[in-house]
Amino acid sequence: MNNLSLLQNINTPCYVIDEARLIKNLEILQGVEQRTGCKILLAQKAFSAYSLYPLIGQYISGTTASGLYEARLGYEHMGGEVHVFSPAYTEGDFHELSKICSHIVFNSYNQFQKYKSATAENISYGLRINPEHSTQENAIYDPCSKHSRLGATLDSLKNADLSGIQGLHFHTLCEQNSDALAETLDVVIEKFGHLFKKIDWLNMGGGHHITRDGYDLELLETCIKRVQDYGLQVYLEPGEAVALNAGYLVAEVLDIVHNDMDIAILNVSAACHMPDVIEMPYRPPVITSGEPGEKAHTYRMAGNTCLAGDIISDYSFDEPLHSGDKIFFEDMAIYSMVKNNTFNGTPLPSIAILRKNGKVETIKQFTYTDFKERLS
Question: CB of 109 within 8 A of CB of 157?
Fold first, then answer.
């Protein structure tokens, strides 16, 4: 990060979105669209900082949502195509979604049967399928795990009348390379390929780490073209890949305590501000740090809540840490902002944009009122 000095005086805690890095990711995604003719959508479940939607909309084709609120956000602030998928829709939400979405994807044949009479000519309806083929080991992020509730299996569609379904959707990946997509696509074509002649599009979901160093773009584009040979429009809906490595969480050391090792108490929390650290688990990079023991001074980074397990990870530094020092966590634009919470009444970090011209622009600050009004 060449602009570290620009963030030394920022008020903490603060999420900072790096506009230059975001644009770099978007250029890669736009290149895939332009070379193949596929359409790429922002999965808002990973990144919903809508002040940047006009910028993102210059590079990709629209947004995808997990429910009504995300769909409204994409519709109101980016435009383009608006897709939505939910495990189940309420009647009220479905009515509102029908006004703003270009594509609505059902999770089951039952849901399609329930709402097909409410279909509108301007909406393309799809069905999520479950190829029942896992390419990852972490069951919490595996839609193909045993007893998964996500997607219709081939067996569940026996004798189903899919008239009115114009597309199929599968989402089985999580932070994976295109080899996992190619493997999954083989299974999808084997099991569901007989339906391709009856539909117009195939959405291959998210979890594609397209903008990661070393990602096999050539294989991804081969997969896209393989589907296009069936005459289908291809959609991809990455979330992480849009803002991967394009954000920071700037924290401050509040105190150093010692209990067999040095522990830095920060004004950020794993539980509140970076929940994937606990859920996945995930170890976010820290600028200028090393692995434990690699550099002269090792510290455990810890949050400022009552949760005993509010631990981020262990890091080492060339120089000792002191109260008031800034800590720069990387890759904090994705999921952290959309999943954070105010457990213990912990204040939410502000949100800022590091513009490509080097200026830092604060776009959101949170107060006691934001905490209070969630509970009233």
Answer: yes
